[in-house]
Design brief:
The protein is an alpha/beta fold and about 260 residues long. The chain has a single domain (about 10-255), classed as 3-Layer(aba) Sandwich (Rossmann fold), CATH 3.40.50.720. It is about 50% helix and about 15% strand. The protein has nine helices and seven strands. The radius of gyration is 17 Å and the shape is globular.
């Protein structure tokens, strides 16, 4: 089991789905966690209460990660509550997909603002605190769409996630001398509300079946699968690893 006693983490987009699982996994290992949300305070407070019921520490902070002032306020709130920031998990993201020919400026800009600019802002502001302490772990959540798979309708989403991968490498190069590790988890098809979208149960099962058939393991990933990978990168077990991308995709055949 990983030990995060006396560690403090900020997990963006952690009121639900993958982010929620990451926050709970960190808390179970003793980490104090800032639960970030953009819309639903009720969902965020539910995660906070779950952590407190297990004897952990957590706060909920509303923040649009694409807004610098809001990001700065989120880290200020974290430091006011817990005195430091050891770990940042850049999980917040959207999946607004459309074909190349139908992608509007709004779709393009929104994907870039949340999925890429948000990672940049949180990384920059968190790193400034981490540099002062000479320690930090930053884990970015990208996607196998950004790693090399071309999917219909993924144009702006895939580009934003590819940007996260390169930002991971550039950040790792610059921050390594400050004892800050920066790594990235790239999920494949994970059973989440984002993947489901507005599909009916029957339509969604067909999607899952297609994704399962594209993997070597023949199974669907869960948010907990991503959380387990994040735990490793966020821990001191990964002290000699930085700038790396870990595909968590069931062994998608395109990449083998």
């Amino acid at each position: 089991m990983f030990d995060f006693k006396d560690k403090v983490a900020v997990v963006t987009g952690s009121s639900r789905s993958i982010g929620r699982s990451i926050a709970l996994a960190l808390a179970r290992c003793g980490c104090a966690v800032t639960i970030n949300y953009r819309k639903s305070r009720d969902e965020a407070e539910e995660v906070v209460n779950s952590i407190r019921q297990m004897g952990g520490k957590a706060i909920a902070v509303k923040c649009d990660v694409s807004k610098r002032e809001e990001v700065e306020n989120m880290f200020t709130a974290t430091i006011n509550a817990f005195n430091k920031v050891d770990i940042l998990v850049n999980n917040a993201g959207i999946g607004w997909v459309e074909s190349l020919l139908e992608t509007t400026d709004e779709i393009w800009n929104k994907n870039m603002e949340i999925n890429l600019k948000g990672v940049f802002l949180c990384t920059q502001i968190a790193a400034r605190h981490m540099v002062d302490r000479g320690y930090g772990k930053i884990v970015n959540i990208s996607s196998n769409s950004g790693f090399g798979i071309a999917m219909p309708g993924d144009t702006s989403y895939a580009v934003s996630k590819a940007g996260v991968i390169q930002l991971t490498k550039s950040s790792a190069f610059e921050l390594g001398r400050h004892n800050i590790n920066v790594n990235c988890v790239a999920p494949g098809a994970i059973d989440t509300d984002m993947l489901r979208g507005n599909r009916s149960d029957e339509e969604y099962e067909k999607v899952l079946e297609g994704r399962r058939n594209a993997t070597s393991l023949g199974i669907t990933g869960t948010p907990e699968d991503i959380a387990n990978a994040v735990l490793f990168f966020a821990s001191d077990k990964s002290r000699y690893i930085t700038g790396k991308i870990l595909l968590v995709d069931g062994g998608r055949r395109d990449f083998l």
